[in-house]
Amino acid sequence: MDWDLALTSLWPLIEGGLKGTIPLSLASMALGLILALLVALMRLSNNRIASGIGRAYVSVIRGTPLLVQLFVIFYGLPSIGLTIPPWPSAIIAFSLNVGGYAAEIIRAAILSVPRGQWEAGHTIGMSRTLALRRIILPQAARVSVPPLSNTFISLVKDSSLASLILVTELFRQAQEIAAFSQQFMLLYIEAAAVYWVFCLVLSAGQSRIEKRLDRYVAH
After folding, report:
1. How far apart are the first and last CA of the chain?
2. Residue with the larger pLDDT of the pair 5 and 65
3. Is the Cα dihedral 18, 78, 29, 163 positive or negative?
4. Is a pLDDT exceeding 90 seen at residue 33?
5. Does residue 122 carry a pLDDT above 80?
6. CB neighbours of 45 closer than 8 A, spacing ≥ 6?
7. What pTM did the predictor assign?
8. Residue by residue, what is the 3-state secondary structure of 115-166?
9. CA distance linking residue 178 with residue 1, whole number of Å
10. Which end of the chain is more exposed for a tag (fewer CB within 10 A), N or C?
């Protein structure tokens, strides 16, 4: 083990995570949640067409590998004349993937809210849309925090796939240093350790958020 290399490469890996992995994950998660909410509402809609489209989208996303989705967007679309740079390609692929999985989480959270809450909103004159926004979604959001937090942590790890389309993030940095130094085992173990630390920090943040919200969730 070249411990001098391990020390000198540590900061570039952390920097790759802070400037690449985390921003990529945050952007993808934010866009994915917007898409997931839309798809969840489509799945719950009484409109058969909207519900069918939502169901088909979830089925395709959950039934195909993330790597294939990423490659279709970055390498496949240019064949039909649509070329997207690496960073936007990664964000689009990860957002679509998050949307498919988070949609089911949000749908289940909405369904977990007692039917009486809808009826209460209707009783005081609220429309279905207003009741959804003012009564149902706030309760569903609290319920969905733990599984959505787990989705984000998984996304941070999955973002390493972006290195395959030349996005400079944590794992890409490790690959470049390893190719130059020929210390592949050292750099890949070091990269794994940095991912682990990132996930530990995120898990600790998740636990704190859950504890703060736990008092508001009915058991």
Report:
1. 51
2. 65
3. negative
4. yes
5. no
6. 51, 54
7. 0.89
8. HHHHHHHHHCCCCHHHHHHHHHHHHHHHHHHHHHHHHHHHHHHHHHHHHHHC
9. 13
10. C
